Amino acid sequence: MDINSNQHCCGNTTTPHERLLDAIKSICRFIPSNGFSWVSLDEMTLLNKAYKQTRLEDLGCESFHEALGVLLKSLESDARLSFIGRVCAHSDILRTLCNRLRLQEDRRRHPQIADQIIDRPLFIMGLPRTGSTLLHALLAQDVSCRAPQTWEVMHPSPPPERFSYYHDQRIPITARELKWSGIIMPGFARVHLLDARLPQECIAITAHSFISYLFESMYFVHSYRAWHDGQDKRPAYECHKQFLQHLQWRAPGTHWVLKAPSHLFALKELVQIYPDARIIMTHRDPLKVLASCASFTEVLRRSFTDCLDREKLGIEISRHWERGARLSIEFCKSNGNSQGRLFNVMYADLVREPMALVRQIYGHFDMELTSETEMAMKRFLAENPQNKHGVHRYSLEEFGLDRDAERRRFEFYMNFFGIELES
Q: Of 89, 175, 188, 208, which has fewest CB within 10 angstroms of its CB?
């Protein structure tokens, strides 16, 4: 069930951006994928480019080389990259390597960065499409907290400073870069909040270790995922902590608010690196999760591949997040409730009364919710209503998933957390 130019994730009606993208992809098919060195996915070519751009050579711990090598091989052998996909993969990996070099140099020049204490960070996780992005953005409105904003994750060096944080020159640069997402990924604004000043997911941080679920969300990298699933994720979270220390050094806050659904797959390593972490798990009817997640993944990947099979995508999403659901239960059973570490959030509660839910979260973790913060959160909700950029439509059947079979598959998860059925 391959799709190309006439079938898209939100039905058969295409938008002008989708038609423009299809035209670009059609033209690009005549360009040889290996014809230009500037889109090479060869490791040494990318490393040499990064060295030349930054005039630096110290990439820090060498362990990332194995992960980078596996990723690059998988991009070449599995991903069936379109020319646009090859350009984007090349650009993103090169930017990440340059960030590593600059971060390492900042750390060499300012060794006090390593002394920063990441105190009781708040992690939001759970199955995707369960309201975690909304909750992350909402909790990030707390005027005293820190959340990694998109601009500082994309361009972390030099370390951000408190006095220039809200008018840093990297903010408009990032905003211009993000405008391309509307062209390269038509429909993205309907399915995900993205702005230079909004909080970014942790997978964009762990990408700097090249042990990250970011790459799997963007590309069909099956062999990389198989390798990644079997890896110790501790190096990724050590990289994550160093990144937060870097961002916090000259722009501190009372606590970090962080988010990524994929934290479910590395809870053991997360609490090893952050033993005082506070965890919020979000939950929703899995049938809604699967359909929405498959549709979102299609939006992400469609531009980057010349062949997208919806049925294979549906199976991939279902099996992957079934494992995530089981891991969430394992964590809750083993040590999730120790010392009030865990708070569970139901999607229905978040949508119905978001501020009531926020008050419960703050009460559970013994945090102060000031009137200033509450006003900022209410303002954010008023300025960002649901479906602000259009309705995201999706169905299980589009991705070859059987409703009854998936209901049975996730029954254990629904029962354990007492999740409401959605129509």
A: 175
